[in-house]
Amino acid sequence: SGTTVSTDVGDDLNLVPGGGVGGAVNCSIQLTTPAIKITTGAGANKILTSDAVGDATWEDPSGGSRAAVQVRLTSNENLPGSLTDIEFDTIDRESDDSIIEVISDERIRVLQAGYYVVTFQGVFNPSSGSERELDIEIRKNGVLIPGGLNMTLFDESSKEDWTQISMEVIGLFAINDEISTAYEDSSGNIEIRANASMIVKTL
Questions:
Q1: What are the b/e assignments for 142-177, b being 16+ CB within 10 Å?
Q2: For residues 147 and 202, what is the distance between their CA atoms, to the nearest angstrom?
Q3: What is the pLDDT of residues 101-122, one digit of tens each?
Q4: Fewest beta carbons within 10 Å, which of 53, 73, 93, 187?
Q5: What is the DSSP letter of 129?
Q6: In contact, 56 and 48? CB cutoff 8 Å
Q7: Quick check: pTM over 0.90?
């Protein structure tokens, strides 16, 4: 206690428990380091998980469980002119709410940290012959997930043609992260058909 240790050497610094140390190194201030290595329980693609008092261990994503939730549209909807979360109206569960849950018409919440697959599928129908662009985003906490953007350009010849769009992203999600899908049609002339769906499942 009250002792300052300073070293500028490039070699490893080994702290070996002994005497009254008890095998623990306690630091009462912020510790900044470019990297940390925890070897006990380590393995590929594991998640560092904390308990209520801050003790952390390596765990398998989602505890090794499998879960899936699907939300669907059962009626046709006109697309908004600005990016807006899709309001789904039907829920299909393949699991209980202990891993992932539906918290509103637009959002699914993650209750166990881990890797999840998010899939969006929908059929879109342009109702006029003017050129327009459809943008779809898969989002985490309201922010675009990398790889979760689809931009489809309808030209004048695509009037009344149905276009099926399917997109999928894999991401690492923390507890209480919220997943949604947003879409936008600046022209206001595109309709989403009733068979659109968003599926969230554990990897």
A1: eeebeebebebebeeebeeeeeebebebebebeeeb
A2: 18
A3: 898 888 999 998 989 999 999 9
A4: 53
A5: S
A6: yes
A7: no
